[in-house]
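hey can u check if this looks right to u? its 307 residues, i copy pasted from the old doc so theres a chance i mangled smth
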Amino acid sequence: MTTFLRVAGVVAALGLALSACGGGGDPLAGGGTGETGDASAPIRIGSAAFPENQLLGEIYGQALEAQGVAVEILQPIASREAYFPGLRDGSIDLVPEYTGVLLQYLEPAATEKSADEVYAALQGVIPEGLTLLERSDAENKDAVVVTQEFATANNLTTIEDLAPLCPTITFGGPPEFQERPDGIPGIEATYGCTFAGYSSLDVGGPLTVTALRDGTVQAADLFTTDPTIESNGFVALEDPLNNFAAQNVVPLVNTAKASDQVQQVLNDISSRLTTEVLIDLNGRLAADDRPNPDTVAQDWLTEQGLL
């Protein structure tokens, strides 16, 4: 019988949710069960602290467990800046990643934009000891979002249209978006858009949605697969100059844990994921009964005949 170790809850507050149970300890502390080279230990699965990424981690974990692979689900960790060091030191073995932002994290000067170009470039900069598996067709990009009322009043359909208003408005998003190359610096460089202020909120969560809805911020960073865009009647502005590169979901795994079996299971998951599937799954997470990501993952895997 295999071991499926679950670490705490799947919905975490922003900040570093780093503790783990079942002997796992701090997922960013080296020397744990996921130490580099220990292929017999459970695969320690991390995720960023937003529901979609937690759900993808659950899908990976449950699919692997169903095939006899021991896994350990860690608490979500705030952002790439926090969890990537754990991948490097082996205290985290597997994360669901997004190609474009991962490329810019590893190579800030990268200029590739299309899905194929980004994936090819990314393969060339993945650090030793990590393996990039097959990318999925599923894509979740950052988007500059405004309310319908604001868009209508100012005749906005693109970020380019927004640029003349930027000196008069406040932008909202997660703290790291203010520094990332395709975040505020990219918007400024690409569109000449310098906002009057920046409000540090959450990663596509209720703080950002509420601030946009009540006018605390006039534009915000949300994900294109976020169901709150449609449910609130928000407008995701088009990005004609391609500030945001392709963002395909892709598993990033510790090479020591990337057995043929593990690769086969995860690549099969990637082959089944599409943007439409992500939107549907995010809609399930946002349902009135607020199911946990592990429940939504189990339901989807069962529908796919993988459990």
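The longest strand covers residues 249-254.
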